[in-house]
Amino acid sequence: MSNQEALTSNFVTVGTEHGPMVSDGWHGTFVPASELLLAILNAASTPSTLEQLSSALDISPDQLAPVAQRLEQLGLLTRDRTSSDLTAIEMIGHAVLPHGRKADLHSLPPQPWSGSLGSPTTSLPADIEIPAGIRALFRRRSRRDFADIPLPLGRIADLLALSVFDAQSIGPAEKQAQHRVSPSAGGRHPIELFLLVDRVEGLEPGIYWVDAPSRGLTIVPGGREPARVLLEQTYPAAMRSDTPAAALYLAAATRRVAWKYEQNVLELVNRDAGAVLQTLYLVATALGLAATAVAVNEHPPNSAVARFAPEPIINVGAFCLGLPVKK
């Protein structure tokens, strides 16, 4: 691994009849929790290069490298190279975002602005004609009840064809700018989609990379169990009648943005994610699907997805899908 790459630990410690064990929480692999192992994983609880870990643990890099490589294979360490793209403040903000403050239910929430705010107001005509092409915009709702039946593969194909697959290169190839349905700052398009499948006709449960240029789905090795766990964690049982049939996991390749914009990389990535989610919402609504965006950001990202990705990624959201429950 290069000096620019860092490792982040991803583990839980559990007690078993054989003593304390360590697991990545996804693949069911358990490793005895030795003092050295715990020292390495605790030292890597924040992104650290091999040299930094070596210094903190007082172990030579040559001795530590094969151990770190084996822990990567077990999913206990994840390569986290985003530190060269995001500032320290951005990394901290992204890591704590899923754990934001709880709402204060004992007071009223801030209200939208209303009234004239002390200045004259010009009333606009209310009798507008809604063009057929944008009617889905007015029907868009977050639908959180999913039918316990498989989602037809054709619906997934339609959704992706209309919201994702229109990818065309613009300008010199070396600049990698693209045109897609959703807008993106500088044409960088950092968002890559991974389809989490539970109940989709014609697809085995698992994780699939949405290959936009080739208009297809590529299976992610070892993704079956992580897909099931992610679907359950992405949409808590208290909020639904059943787990979604599928979900889109939004991963951002931050280097694409950092190549052009040295500052505010995370802000631009999150704006792009919002544009992608709104496009998915409108197309899903037009197709009659139940769909809802979920502000769940894994940090570090799912180990199966991170190992598959050819470059550093962060998770910036999810989009749950299924057939609606018939009333």
TrEMBL record:
GO terms assigned for molecular function: oxidoreductase activity
SUPFAM superfamilies referenced in this protein's UniProt entry, alphabetically: FMN-dependent nitroreductase-like, Winged helix' DNA-binding domain
Lineage: superkingdom: Bacteria
Domain Nitroreductase: 139-298
NCBIfam families cross-referenced by the UniProt entry: antibiot_sagB
Matches recorded under PANTHER family: NITROREDUCTASE MJ1384-RELATED
Record protein name field: SagB-type dehydrogenase family enzyme
